[in-house]
Design brief:
Order of helices and strands: HHHHHHH
Largest sheet: none
Radius of gyration: 19 Å
Strand content: under 5%
Distance between the termini: 55 Å
Number of helices: 7
Oligomer: single chain
Structural class: mainly alpha
Low-confidence stretches: 10-35
């Protein structure tokens, strides 16, 4: 019953989002123009580093799942290993890579800005929004029964540590 209610609420939220998008589409008239306004031109450096972080995160999530499996073999009553671990890892990894990509887009836009004050404000606003987005994910990972909470939260740290480890290794 709870899952059915949750799915129906998600469907309702999805329909509301599509309706909202349709309203914007009708106002603008051209969806391509709308999306290019949001993302603009993605510079090759942002694309390259986002792919690099995506690979780092995928490897990290795979290692995390292997760790969960190993711990599950040792202490199966304490550490679970089922679909919730894998689903939490995939979703958490996606959120982590999306966070990095959005940060790259913000840095790209800020670097092109002429006014230092507005650039600083854009960077602060982006940071706040991205942190709130990650906080929302943490709440969802803890509350939703389809995610193992630790497997959903750990991937948020993988890009940072992966970049640092690669920096140390490349010295």
């Amino acid at each position: 019953m709870i899952i059915t209610e949750m799915v129906s609420r998600m469907c309702a939220a999805g329909c509301a989002a599509l309706l909202h998008l349709r309203v914007h589409y009708e106002k603008i008239g051209d969806m391509k123009g709308y999306m290019s306004g949001i993302f603009g031109e993605i510079q090759p450096a942002v694309r390259k580093e986002s792919i690099r972080v995506g690979v780092i995160t995928a490897v990290g999530v795979a290692l995390m799942c292997a760790g969960f499996f190993g711990l599950h073999l040792i202490v199966p009553d304490i550490v679970p290993f089922d679909y919730t671990v894998i689903l939490g890892g995939i979703a958490g990894g996606f959120i982590a890579v999306l966070n990095f990509f959005l940060m790259g887009l913000t840095v790209q836009k800020v670097a092109a800005a002429a006014d230092e004050g507005s650039a600083r404000n854009k960077m602060k606003a982006s940071y706040t929004q991205r942190m709130l987005f990650q906080l929302l994910w943490v709440v969802v990972a803890i509350v939703a029964p389809c995610f193992q909470f630790a497997a959903g939260i750990i991937p948020l740290f993988i890009p940072s540590y992966g970049i640092k480890l690669l920096g140390i290794a490349n010295r």
